[in-house]
Amino acid sequence: MGRRVLITGLSTFWGGRLAQALEADPGVDVIIGLDTREPTVKLERTEYVRSDENYSILSRIVRATGVDTIAHTFLVVDSTQMSSRAMHEINVIGTMNLFAAASAAGSTVRNVVVKSAALVYGSSPQDPYWFRETDKRSGQPRTRVERSLLEVESYVRDFARDNPKVCLSTLRFCNVIGPDISTPFVSALEMPFVPKVAGYDPRFQLVHEDDVVSAILFALDKQVPGVFNIAGDGVLPWSEITAIVGKRGIPMPPFGIDLATAPLRRLGLVDLPPELIDLLKFGRGIDNSLFKEAGFRYQYTSAGAVAAFVAALRLRKTMGNHDPAYRYEEDVEQFFRHSPAVMRDHPHT
Amino acid sequence: MAHEEQERGPLPTQTAALVPVHLPPVADEPEPLDDPRTGDVDEWGRSEQVRAFVCKAYDPVYRHWFRAEWDGLEKIPTEGGALLVSNHAGAIPSDAPTIMHGIETKLGRPVYGLADHFFKNTPVVGTLWARAGGVVAHPDNAYRLLREQQQLALVFPEGTKGTSKTYNERYRLRRFGRGGFVEIAMRAGVPIIPIAVVGAEESMPILFKVPSVAKVFGLPYFPVTANMAFGPLGALIPFPAKFKLRVLDPITFDDIEPDQPRYSRSRIMDESEAIRQQIQEALFDMLRQRRSVWMG
């Protein structure tokens, strides 16, 4: 019998990419995707279930479907997307419900992968230049997304302690860059003038979006328990990144930067979350050797990821954004998945 | 549940075409990845270009202003990691750039200067400091530099307690922190090389300090120096005191295993105090021989 996988956050960038990759794996029998919104990418055999943002129906789904694997990719790491309260519901309460369902009596869950972020380390001048998985952050969390992720990780730790039979991997990703991903970090690089903080030129570490999906698949496949940093090799200064992208930096004042960016935020021009401003001052490096020792191979270094992003940016400049917009039509999807009229040569459906 | 490649049936072509990523092949010998760097800033923020420029600019100061003179430079290894430990003085200390410049030009290998995170927090200064070889003094950073990369790292265990002392307390060494530098050298398995420096105290002597100003600007201390008598620009220029640097015998910890999680606190404190005493004795000796602050 193959694996039965549940993906939280199917409609996020990561959930969609992960589902697509899992569909190609004949060792995966069932893929169930949970989200509040409809999927944004074309999927062949993934079953989409609409849920509320904090997954109150999760325990019913786990019981009914007997999933053995959960990929928790729904954590919000971009604080510009939503209010503090909504983020708390999704990240903290959602994770709480997820683990409640996974640890219920008679639960079939044996493998959980949580997509966390290097934001849990923060970014401050006291930091070590390379955070290891066991390192604590230097100071108290300053921003709400960091607080929320730290709370999530404390649930993760509790769950791991209480359920030693479940293989639980927590992956902490550094800033992601790539052809398709859109984050405040990537949109900062897409602006005509790239923001920087005057007088600072911090070290940045990046990871390519494909390496992120590969890392989640690797963790699902190899079942490596523990916390892992996921980041490309090497760090490069912000000035070098902007130079590779071919943009000029627009300096922001080093003091009172929140005041300076507030009007821009109001106008909807630039939305730089506070954690990104910290990063633009002090940078961050995370030690990726543990996951490499577990056997994972990256396809891109930090600089390589930037180069791949620039190549995609150039292509888009010439060709325009030609991705046909995918729209989820429930009756169409149901027809293809369940109608007796459809001939299915696929061995697993 | 890992599936071997041969066990897999034919991939469904429709979905396979959609899928942009695959599990990376697990190879024993990974090919080096393409790393299209355009700058030369290393993982510590140091740039050899900037460093070369700073060296060029500092060389006349080193030669003609401070007329730095070394004794026992051959005790510093030309390869392998070592932790350089020195006394620290002067409101804006000139000992750090002088030691780094001297070793880098004479031995041709980089020296990373470990210092308080105050620098990293300061705009412009912090960036230049990092490009010129400054690294935040964090145990993990020191370990990585010394153990994994076998570099030379320079540390001033007195910290700001050394640079903030007033002129009448010159050449009296402060407490050597909590002995963290000894622990790092033990863990990294590298020798400690003490260096005694004479001259930095007189290059920018502190007459008195104004704690209230320091508090307002968030500085570790705000000194009123003798150099301030020469105007705002003069306040930044050190006096041309003669610099003499003496490298003492390296201290190795052959009986101690590196990479231990903890080390004996009493041993650390004893070693730390012994090193402090050695540097203090060397300073007394050098001051006994010194005829003039300016001529040496």
Query: Could you tell me the radius of gyration of chain A in angstroms?
Result: 20 Å
What fraction of residues of chain A sit in β-strands? 15-25%
Q: Tell me about the largest β-sheet of chain A.
A: 7 strands, parallel
Named CATH architecture of the domain at 48-199 and 241-289 in chain B? 3-Layer(aba) Sandwich
The global form of chain B is globular
* Chain-averaged pLDDT of chain A: 89
Q: How many distinct beta strands of chain B?
A: 9
Main sheet of chain B, how many strands, which sense, barrel?
7 strands, mixed
Distance between the termini of chain B: 75 Å
* CATH superfamily annotation of the domain at 48-199 and 241-289 in chain B: Glycerol-3-phosphate (1)-acyltransferase
Helicity of chain A, as a percent range: 25-40%
Major sheet: arrangement of strands of chain B: 1-9-6-2-5-3-4
Annotation keywords:
heterodimer; A: 349 residues; alpha/beta; seven-stranded parallel β-sheet; two-stranded parallel sheet; 12 helices; globular; B: 296 residues; Glycerol-3-phosphate (1)-acyltransferase; seven-stranded mixed β-sheet; two-stranded antiparallel ribbon; 9 strands
Describe the protein in words.
The complex is a heterodimer of chains A (349) and B (296). Chain A is an alpha/beta fold and 349 residues long. Chain A is built from twelve helices and 13 strands. Chain A has helices spanning 13-23, 58-65, 84-102, 144-162, 184-190, 209-222, 238-245, 257-266, 274-282, 289-293, 302-319, 330-338, and strands at residues 3-8, 28-35, 47-50, 69-72, 111-117, 167-173, 175-177, 193-197, 203-204, 206-208, 226-230, 236-237, 248-252. In chain B, the strands form two sheets. Chain B has a seven-stranded mixed beta sheet with strand order 1-9-6-2-5-3-4, with helices on both faces. Chain B is globular, with a radius of gyration of 24 Å. Chain B is built from twelve helices and nine strands. Chain B has a domain at 48-199 and 241-289: Glycerol-3-phosphate (1)-acyltransferase (3-Layer(aba) Sandwich). Chain B has helices at 13-18, 48-65, 95-107, 118-121, 125-131, 139-148, 160-163, 180-188, 200-203, 211-217, 231-234, 265-289; strands at residues 69-71, 82-86, 111-115, 134-136, 152-155, 192-198, 206-209, 223-225, 244-247. In chain B, helix 2 packs across helix 3 (95-107), helix 6 runs parallel beside helix 8 (180-188) and helix 8 (180-188) crosses helix 12 (265-289). Residues 1-19 of chain B have low confidence and may be disordered. Classes of the chains: A alpha/beta (349), B alpha/beta (296). Chains A and B meet through helix 1, helix 6, strand 12, helix 7 and helix 11 of A and helix 1, helix 4, helix 5 and helix 6 of B.
